[in-house]
## 1
Amino acid sequence: MATLPNPLRSPADAGLQLPPGTYVDTTIDETWHEPLLWYADEPASPGTWAALRATGRPVGLLPVLIDGGMRTQWPEAWDLGPARTSYPGDHDAEDVLSEAWEAYAADELDLDGSEADWPGLAPVPAESGPDAPDTLAAEIADRLTAPDGPMAGVRAALVPARRSADIPAAIGWSGPLNHENDVARLCAVLRSWEDRFGARIVVLGFDTMVVSVSRPPTTIAESEALAAEHFAFCPDNIQQSTLNTLEAYAEKALLNQETWAFWWD
């Protein structure tokens, strides 16, 4: 079970004046003892993210956009499993990634010899981006939710979490279940990406995630080092993509890219 030394308020107890929405306490096991998140009844629009962050942050609630996808699956149907989720701080990002790499890389990426050895964590990019992490996250959210944006129709949510990387663990998200059955382990990686790349979770769907990146790699060498981490984090991003080599993925999906998208089959 995901527990914190100083539990945060649930969205229902925060005393906020929120627009019409839904408090979600439905899990795969039982009704949870408090709401895991609140999400709006109506689609988000530009400015929604920034407004919710300003409202929620002081009481320990962070924004995320919720994507119902083509099947309109909202969080009540996501098989949330908070009782099955540990705490991100109990895991080491490199341990999580190296274990996945050693389990899958040699076969799935057709690597031989030393190529199959875990290459280690990617370095912090030499160049910093122009925007602060939370500023960029708000800008990405605005682009996605614009009337002609690629994700118009997503809804805004608030989740009790101390940092963006912990949002999936806070709700017991099961999106990566076919790859990792304790999402807190992947949250440990997201924490590391927060620190090294200025990452913020912007969108969650049933089995998808979009992350903003304020300090992306700016060289091929930096991108290729990071591509190994992405494979270990979400093998389907490469295995089931036209960018099905680390080199192609690094160049097209990571180099100078301010958003990372993940999908688990």
Note: The first strand starts at residue 21 and ends at 24.
## 2
Amino acid sequence: MKPIVEFCASNMHHGTDRIMQRLEQDPDYEVIEYGCLGNCGECYLFPFALVDGEIVAAETADKLYDEIVKNIEEHRANREALDKLLDDL
């Protein structure tokens, strides 16, 4: 299952539009843009996105990209470890 990365159109002034476009080029991600994600405090203060429903934020849009990728990799590793554990039972 592809990770879902959601962006708020109102957050694009932080440069997240570039990050969204970059992630859209990768077929391993499902990228969705909404008019509003209902996280107005985060939206006003810094670049953010939702990754599988979890807020991922950073000081800059470029750092946000790194945090998104890191978050996805960590979740993938956790799922693989859990799958292995269940297979071993």
Note: The first helix runs from residue 16 to 24.
## 3
Amino acid sequence: MTTFDQMSYGPLGKAVEAAMPTSEADPIGVWAASLSLYSAAISRRVRLDNRRPVVVWTVLAGRSAIGRKGYALGTASAVLGKVIGGFIHTRKRSGVANGPSLVDMLSGLELDTMGQDGGIDGRCILLEEEWASVLKDQKKCSKFSTMFRTAWDGKPISNRTKKDGLQSVAQPLLGFHAHITPGEWGKYVSSSEALGGSYNRLLPVLVERSKMLPYNNRPQVPDTSALKGAFEWAEEEDRVMYFSIEAGERFDEIRAIVEDRMAELPELLASYMERSAEQVQRVSAVLSATVMEEEISRDAVEAAWQFVSYSMASVEKLVKDAASNNEGAKPMKTPEELIRDVLNKHGGEAKASDLLRPLWGKMNAAGIKDTVEGMDDVLVVQEKTGGRGAPKTIYRLIDPEDQAGKPKLKVISGEGPKVKPKPVSSNPFVSLL
């Protein structure tokens, strides 16, 4: 079984190791949290040679209390306090549950630093210590998962508002670290989101208490002067991280191992591992930066692979345990499925208010509107009454083939007779109740 010693590397590894005698946390949990924090802190000027960001997103999965998840983050924060304490204090955020808020947060950080010495700084670290509660809210926004994935990729994200117009972030610098219990994982980490790629950007690791210490234990903060020097090196100028010849050869071997393993697994389980190779590249780049080297060594790749392979094993156990615990349980429906269910109950079409009412608490009006924009089997009809009031909005189930090439929004005038269409049972995605 993979141990912390196998994934430890450089001054960051030595600092975590030195902190462990006075910490009850799982050393791999401390390592995961440290990688997320440090990678986010250096992301402004450190990049991969393909211009992708180096941010490493991690999730600690452990049972309440005995998992010591908060203890792990606390230990990592203490270890890095003298190195990137200012970054953690000023750039940590939490509770972001919809796409527009994500764009607004990152755009705001860039605007706040515009004109400052060193240029625009949009770095941020999302720390979600109660990730399950945030996941519930994120499901109400159809845009969040797409923007979240795009931010990890380092590609532009944008949102348009009536008040501020277009908000955009050209190169998101978003770090992420979260905590969840295995039971919550099975309940809130949905298979549809996993298949869509939302969770293969994350490196979940199973954690548990490493030891029980006396009540009067006082955590000791190790010497991090070498790591502080590495952070200053990372901030001095743009750094482009690239593989040495030996490291590149080992990386190719790892890619083959990952793909062979994915081929053996069911599609759902394999979907969590689709970016494992790039995760190795990112982790090894961060580790090389801690020793002030732009050239990534084979040893750094090997240490990164030990961490990523531990995460792959953790995911496999989490997903299999969730499937075992949920046998016979009713799966959570996607926003699209919920909308179709309500429309079918109303005979195939419903006014906006009639659609919102049964979905209240699961989706809001804006969420319904955003979700319907991506559904080819729902037509939006705005009916003008001829008075001064706003037109009524009606959502109608249709056959996608009949609507091909036609506008998504239809505007009609006058009340006129209403004829409710029959539910479209030919659509395989519509479940008739």
Note: The longest strand covers residues 173-180.
